[in-house]
Specification:
Blueprint lengths: L7 H14 L2 H5 L29 H4 L16 E3 L6 E3 L3 H4 L13
Antiparallel strand pairs: 1-2
Length: 109
């Protein structure tokens, strides 16, 4: 079994990088995206963020793999949506009717 050891200097560097990175989003955002008080300006009105930690797998809900080998597929079938090429879990019948009104981003990061 391998062990990971960190000396004090390495811990300080890691902690410093973590603290420094907290200011990164504001520095990479263009100044034209901030109001006078420094808050972000957005034209978007709504965002629903679904984070599946400990819940059902994304492969069984939002990111179906119908062409994957059977041993990797979940128990559910896919259904078509209003958006060509987008398929959802058969349990999401009502959401499938609304796919032209939202954006689905499948990401692992």
């Amino acid at each position: 079994m391998s062990t990971f050891e960190m000396n004090r200097r390495q811990a300080m560097v890691a902690g410093g990088l973590g603290v420094a990175s907290m200011g990164l989003p504001g520095s990479v955002m263009g100044a034209d995206k901030l109001d006078k008080s420094g808050n972000a300006i957005s034209s978007d009105k709504n965002c629903i963020f679904i984070l599946l930690c400990g819940g059902p797998s994304h492969v069984d809900t939002w990111d179906m793999k119908p062409n994957a080998p059977i041993e990797y597929r979940g128990p559910y079938k896919t259904i078509g949506t209003k958006v060509p090429g987008m398929r959802l879990n058969e349990m999401h019948t009502e959401l499938a009717k609304l796919t032209d009104q939202f954006t689905l981003i499948n990401s692992m990061t």
